[in-house]
Amino acid sequence: MPDAARPDRSPVAEGSPGGPGAPGLVSPVRTVVYFYSSTSGMVRSFALRLGREAFDLGDREVRRSVPDGPWVLLTPSYKTGNVDNDTIPEPVRRFLASPVTRRRLVGVMGSGNRNFGEHYQAACRQIARTSGRPVLFEFELQGTTWDVEEARSILEDLDRALDVEHTRREAGAQA
User: What pTM value is reported for the model?
Assistant: First the structure.
């Protein structure tokens, strides 16, 4: 969830299957997803199918917010070989301008088009390299059903790992 300074806005995937409080959820930590999608809506479609809180960086208020905990970036790549064509979408670049936002980023997922050749997943890989965070998953265009299931599994594993780390830190602070 975004911090208290952010206006109250409903997440894109609120109430969707697998959302907060869903039965069978092992970890109380739920990493939120921030995504940017062009007018094609392919990345938005993928984000909605993940079944967790997802915030659209196309919304100015979301871009001006600061995540209040761990988050994952889901971004498309647009570079097609034109050296003047910046691969990272401007709304993503603006959101990452905040040092706190960058510090809370735990991983990057990317959507790309294999027709871009060597520039396939360029934005995702560049952000991961620059931030020192891992590329968690890459998929083509809007992703397949298998891609969505794999991304969900990766996010659930990440949630569990973050929960273990949080519990370890709390125990250390109490000792």
Answer: 0.80
Q: Which residues contact 63 (CB under 8 A, 6 or more apart)?
A: 57, 91, 94, 95
Contact between 68 and 1 (Cβ < 8 Å) = yes
- Extract the residue ranges of the chain whose pLDDT is less than 50: 1-26
E-state strands within the chain: 32-35, 54-56, 71-76, 105-112, 135-140
In the CATH scheme, what is the homologous superfamily, with its name and number, of domain 32-174? Answer: Flavodoxin domain (3.40.50.360)
Q: Is 99 exposed, middle or buried (0-12, 13-18, 19+ CB in 10 A)?
A: exposed
- pLDDT tens digits for range 7-20: 333 344 433 333 33
pLDDT number for residue 82: 60
The residue type of 170 is: E
